[in-house]
Amino acid sequence: MVSQNQPTQTHVVLIGGGHSHAIALKLWGMNPIEGVRLTLISDSIYTPYSGMLPGHVGGFYSFEETHINLNRLVQLADAQFYQDWAIGLDLEKNQVICAKNSPLSFDYLSIDIGSTPATISVPGAADYAIPAKPVSQFLTAWNTLLQQVKNHPHQPITISIVGGGAGGVELALNIDSHLKKITQQATLHLFHRGKRLLSGHNHWVGHRLETLLQNRNISLHLSENVTQITPSKTLICESGLTVENDYIFWVTQASAASWIKSSGITTDEKGFIRVKDTLQSVSHPHILAAGDVATIQNYPRPKAGVFAVRQGKPLFKNLQNSVLGKPLKSYYPQKLYLSLIGTGDKKAIASWGVFGWESPLLWDWKDYIDRQFMKSLNG
Ligand SMILES: Cc1cc2nc3c(=O)[nH]c(=O)nc-3n(C[C@H](O)[C@H](O)[C@H](O)COP(=O)(O)OP(=O)(O)OC[C@H]3O[C@@H](n4cnc5c(N)ncnc54)[C@H](O)[C@@H]3O)c2cc1C
């Protein structure tokens, strides 16, 4: 810890430029601590805002409108930018192991690296399907697909989306609406293991989205367990259903980077970092974590951007309190949270507990909230 009167070079390292870290960097810039060196390790300068990503795919927002400029926030916080991938932790030496640069020592560490859709359990998925995360790789594939369709609008194209949670459904609706502006030759399939879509939400929302997909001629395959993807992108289900594809997008359950668990830090059964209410690791209190990569021991919640955003401020406060030797404060994530799901037609569906609504006004509201959020970070 440092005293504010006695500057030393305490080093605080942030891994990942997720939503919580973007907010923490901004707040740090507004409340700097003398004698503390701050470093962000991030693979990319531009990090996507999850709330607007499907809208970007739908063609409603540009890349710049949907991505947070981390370089700007790093400069505001007077921090250093290490553009690199963290690939491990040495918890004996308190070092982050990076893909390109030499190991980086830290006094306090914060991790906000998100999650990726789990491909490991389905043979062929990691090699022949395109996971929705990392988003930069997903967008590269999406832009290739778009260009292909623009160049050959009369050529049939088949696309499957695997995963019937909010992310998968919103993506399917936005892919559909964008492609329909360019071609009449696209066939879309959505596969979901469960009996109904968005099982974490109320029944009305799931059923309404099912109807919307059917109205748009997107083939919905419920209770279908995808068991294999072949090199020719044929998708095979446990039931025997087989679909040949040109592209397969993978938007299934969130999984954690394997290096987290192998570093020796305590994780939950899925490999996410177990944290206390203060966002401190239960095993290594000088390490904090937020967003998808963290599981709050007492209050597990779905992996959703809304929580990563909410954790930005408490993460920032507790990082600074750790450095200053002050008591850390508990954070209690709300149980009920509002989801606004864009339907790719400038309308949105709201889900809040047992309630659900659909309206173009909800899209206007979502658009306003999302743009305000981006303005607060990108200026
Ligand atoms: C298609 C889709 C749509 C979604 N829509 C919504 C929505 O509308 N609302 C909602 O609440 N949630 C939504 N989600 C979920 C949401 O994306 C996540 O919950 C949210 O992004 C988590 O934020 P985070 O801060 O934990 O991490 P992220 O936003 O994933 O950010 C992590 C950052 O860390 C970087 N990083 C990762 N690993 C490393 C490493 N090893 N070294 C350095 N940098 C690294 C990444 O490149 C990224 O910039 C959606 C998800 C998907 C897939």
From TrEMBL:
Any one GO BP annotation for this protein: aerobic electron transport chain
Cofactor(s) needed: FAD
Keyword field: FAD, Flavoprotein, Oxidoreductase
Coiled-coil intervals, chain numbering: none
Superkingdom of the source species: Bacteria
GO MF annotation terms: NAD(P)H dehydrogenase (quinone) activity
Location of the FAD/NAD(P)-binding domain: 11-312
Family per similarity comment: Belongs to the NADH dehydrogenase family.
The name this protein goes by in its record: Pyridine nucleotide-disulfide oxidoreductase family protein
